[in-house]
Amino acid sequence: MAVIWILELGFGAFIVWGACPIGECVRPDYNAVMNTREMTEKLQDWQKLATKTAKNVGEATDDYVRENTWSTIAFAAVIGCIFGYLLASRRD
Fold first, then answer.
1. Which parts of the chain fold into alpha helices (H)?
2. Whether residues 79 and 51 fall in one domain
3. Global pTM value
4. Are 12 and 34 spatial neighbours (Cβ–Cβ below 8 Å)?
C-alpha cells in the first residue's frame, strides 16, 4: 500500500512516497505541506544570504592579502612545499 509521508526539514516540508506496513499507515496532514511559493521564497532568501556572505568573505580575504602581501606569499609557498613533499614521497 503506497502512502504519502511528509518530512519536515529546517526550511520546509517535502512529500515522500513510500510503502508502509498494514495498520501503521497514517494519512498525511496536507495543511503541513508548504506551498511552492513559500518554499521558493525561503530558498531564494537563503541563496541571497549565502551570496552576501560569500561576497563579504571574498572582500575580507582580498583586504587581508593586500595588506599582508609578503606573509601571504610566504604562507602559500610553505603550504605548496608541504603538499609537494607529501605528493613526492608517495611515489616511492
1. 36-67, 69-90
2. yes
3. 0.48
4. yes
